Amino acid sequence: MEKIKRTKVVDVLQRTDFGAVVNVKGWVRTHRSSKSVDFIALNDGSTIKNVQVVVDPSKFDESMLKQITTGSCINVNGELVESQGAGQTVELQCREIEIYGLCASDYPMQKKGQSFEYMRQYAHLRLRTNTFGAVMRIRHNMAIAIHKYFHDHGFFYFHTPLITASDCEGAGQMFQVTTKNLYDLKKNDEGKITYDDDFFGKQTSLTVSGQLEGELGATALGAIYTFGPTFRAENSNTPRHLAEFWMIEPEVAFIDLNDLMDLEEDFIKYCVQWALDNCKDDLEFLNKMIDKTLIERLKSVVSGSFVRLEYTEGINILEEAVKNGHKFEFPVSWGMDLASEHERYLVEEHFKKPVIMTGYPKAIKAFYMKINEDGKTVQGTDVLFPQIGEIIGGSVREENYDKLIGEINERNIPMKDMWWYLDTRKYGSCPHGGFGLGFERLILFVTGMQNIRDVIPFPRTPKNAEF
Amino acid sequence: MEKIKRTKVVDVLQRTDFGAVVNVKGWVRTHRSSKSVDFIALNDGSTIKNVQVVVDPSKFDESMLKQITTGSCINVNGELVESQGAGQTVELQCREIEIYGLCASDYPMQKKGQSFEYMRQYAHLRLRTNTFGAVMRIRHNMAIAIHKYFHDHGFFYFHTPLITASDCEGAGQMFQVTTKNLYDLKKNDEGKITYDDDFFGKQTSLTVSGQLEGELGATALGAIYTFGPTFRAENSNTPRHLAEFWMIEPEVAFIDLNDLMDLEEDFIKYCVQWALDNCKDDLEFLNKMIDKTLIERLKSVVSGSFVRLEYTEGINILEEAVKNGHKFEFPVSWGMDLASEHERYLVEEHFKKPVIMTGYPKAIKAFYMKINEDGKTVQGTDVLFPQIGEIIGGSVREENYDKLIGEINERNIPMKDMWWYLDTRKYGSCPHGGFGLGFERLILFVTGMQNIRDVIPFPRTPKNAEF
């Protein structure tokens, strides 16, 4: 076979130099045969679109052609010609075919229209389907948008540790990390397991958040962001929970509440606009197959301003709604933590646009949030989105050492391993704040997918660590 | 105090609109006082350079000024003036000062010239020093370069799982991840601990490499890269080992040995060139303070071609060196795994440039490497660098199902949890390859730092999981 430099399918489909002989390599999506002509739809993952390879069966070995079934991997030299068919502008008139790998007849992705549940069992092969290819390319693009946004705005990417000896925030149940021999656990006189022989010489877990370490970065480098895996050992079998997920946590020195809300809004709009600008083909596919209002919803997020709403005002609106006959599952009253139904009512029914809520009651938020002058609310800022509910949770941080200690004591938070966090308030403390974005929540929003297990390549959930 | 929008120090130092009143916020690096004038060197992490704030002490409260010691955080409005001093072009004539946070007198980063060992104990505060600020900004830049390189070349960022139930590659000792109650470990009749009550229903660990899952991505999306944390539970207390480190693992379908070596060389040169182009101030500082040959070494890497060397030829060169009286600690013979001294001899003494070595004996390389026609060597490709030794390890992968199974059986690798990996060779197998780059190894090379614990914010090593 003549050696020609490979052209990716995404690039072949842009070419107009008809008559040129090009090389493509990829996996067969479909192979339709008739007496006079074979059509092979070839995909190489570079785009959701296939290139059509038109084969004159009289010029090739019949038994060879017959082997090229869905899922096979082939290498094709062909002449670029204008396409006669609808929905494509170019196709390849096949000159040579080499088979790289045939596909066993029990290929699980053979049939179209399998359920997402079915496909999760074959997470390694579902990546070759239209839907998951689209989701993964969009996921990539969202990661790139995030890095580009922060880099362009002078934030430094900061790697906070995954293995941690602190569990201060109490954000969730943790996975223990150990090299101890479980068959020979050393205990002290009181029968407590000792950890001096464990790898780190103490009990360690997987982090639930990089924020506290992120604050160390921000109070030195000015503005940082994390983008890494985070873990929760909660036994939640829901379409919204993963035991291992990716989180983005920017943290900025010298920021106040308004600047923080500006940052949150600007950042998330940038990401959504990036998808609209850079993932057109994939979004159109998902809009057609998964969620017919997807593109419209993305456009509506970037086009208008977000509502900025005090918690107290939000409660008033919800109470008004109840008075007017709206039924919520959970009762509404000042001091409560909003449930998803409340958030969605405000966003989808009342304002019909994203909401940044602030001024939450101190008691329902974390210890590190800056306390307002009223002494009972804090400068937390949650961004509430249609469909998703809370997509961002952030706050200005309490920079006053004494107030922070007061909260820690009031909540009985064990601070023995947290001396380094308090040091930031002891040595040149500064106003600062930041937020956290669950990456998969963003991907759910941008793809219109319904289950978080379908927007990460290999989901980790209770009883599932396959692949 | 008048509210003026903050300008970052990195931007202030570029401004030439003398007479303008600007606002800067940051941490005091030094404060020198005399009767007639105070000089405050202020840094906000945006650059290694400080902005000099010139204070007329007669215009400010003396006791307030006195409190502003090294490490304090302040907010300054000042007039931009041309600097009289050497080494800076602008300075600020102070108009107003606000103290955000004073610095307790036991501030551990007070004195200059502390050892790196000392500073590691205060990893949360060392970030505020010149050296660690420079290292962290370069680290950020290298991450951005990596994402930009792969994005521009059509690779998709692919998140492989951290928690895994497979330990197939055997690349190193693993950390166990569990939610089991260690005080009440369930065992079966044979006394073996059972894992059906563990979070994932089986025994799980932290990954040592994302490569095998990366191959699943590449054989669907065409070209992917990972960039995430990786773990080794080896009890290695050396300047080169971390228990938790970041790794970049690109994987590409339809690549052959030469393309792979081209990719490795092009990629690493791009990263080094990015540092030279984007981290000038930080590199100049490190070149002056840490390693006087740093910039010269970086330039030499990007300027010439890497040597491409067969393993067998490399052994010949080493044997020749031994004959000519060169002393190695470890003896040289065909079949051995090269030690660092051998790699560095080839790179630093013999060729005086980076080397890509290939054609390694099968027995010293991993099971998945493509076997050459000689049946005894494989298409591994290690990139060997001055100072560092192996900076990249890669290979073309064996795509033939039967050959792969042969290697697995020959090495007695437990494949029970690896059915999904074999599926890539069963359903449309394709030629492919990739490599792994330890991120911290790259940062060591680009910064000239000597200890890997000093190029990651919070190192994880035996007996150390602080912060």
Automatic annotation (TrEMBL), chains A, B:
Enzyme Commission number: 6.1.1.22
Tell me the GO molecular function terms.
asparagine-tRNA ligase activity; ATP binding; nucleic acid binding
From which source organism is this entry?
Xylanibacter rarus
Domain of life assignment: Bacteria
Subcellular locations according to the entry: Cytoplasm
Assembly and interaction partners: Homodimer.
Which of UniProt's keywords are assigned here? Answer: Aminoacyl-tRNA synthetase, ATP-binding, Cytoplasm, Ligase, Nucleotide-binding, Protein biosynthesis
- Please give the name of this protein: Asparagine--tRNA ligase
Family designation: Belongs to the class-II aminoacyl-tRNA synthetase family.
Q: One GO BP annotation here?
A: asparaginyl-tRNA aminoacylation
